[in-house]
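Bug #77: duplicate submission created two jobs. Keeping one. Sequence:
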Amino acid sequence: MPIIRPTPANLATLVSSDHRRRFSLCLICITCFASIFVLCSQTARAAQDSPALRQKRIGVLIEQLGNDDFTTREVAQGKLLEQGLYAFDKLHLAQHHDDIEISKRAMFLIGSIRIPWTVRTDGPEVRVILSGYADKNSEDRKSHMQRLAALDDYLGIAALSRMVRYESSNRLSRFAALLIMNQVVPTDVTRSKELVTELEGLHSESSRVGARWVQAYALSLKSPQKSVD
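Kept job's structure:
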C-alpha cells in the first residue's frame, strides 16, 4: 500500500484549517462570556435599584413619550413596557397628562401591561373566584371582589390589594379598597398586627387613592392616635 507523504502545501492547508477551527471556538467562547457578563451586570443593576430610583427613571421615560423626536418616543415606550407593573401607577396618572401624545401613549401602555390577577401564593378558593376575572365587565368584577371580601380569615386581602393597585378603573380600585377597610377587625392582637404588616407591605409602593386609603386604615389599626393626627 503506497504511503502518502504530506507535502508543504497539504501541511499549510491542514494548519490553516486547524487555526480557523480554533479561532471559531475562541470567538464562540468570548461571545458566551460577554453575554453572561452583560446579563449578570443587568441583573445586579436591577437588584440594586431602589424603588425611588426606579420611579424617577420611569418618570423621565414618561416625559420622553412627548418628545419631538419620534425615535425617542418609541424607545421610551418600549422601555416603559419592559418595566411592566413597576410603571403602572405613574402611567395611570399620565393618562390625564396635558400633553396629548403622552396621554395617548400612556393609555396604550396601560392596556398593554398584563396584570397577574392570580399569583402562585393564592389559595384554591381565591383562584376559583378570580377565574376569568380579566374578561369580566365592571359589575361582574365588583361581584368577584365581594366574594373575595367574604372569605374567612382575610384570605382575599392580597387579591383585593392587587385590584386596588392595578384596576384601570378608579371606581373599581376604590371599591376594592373599601371592601378591605370594611373587614371585621381581628380581636386577637397578634392577628391584628399580622394584618397591619400585610396591608403595609401590599400598599406601601402605590400612590393611587385607594392604596392611600388602605395605608391610612392600616395606620389606624396600628396607632389610632397617629391616624387622627
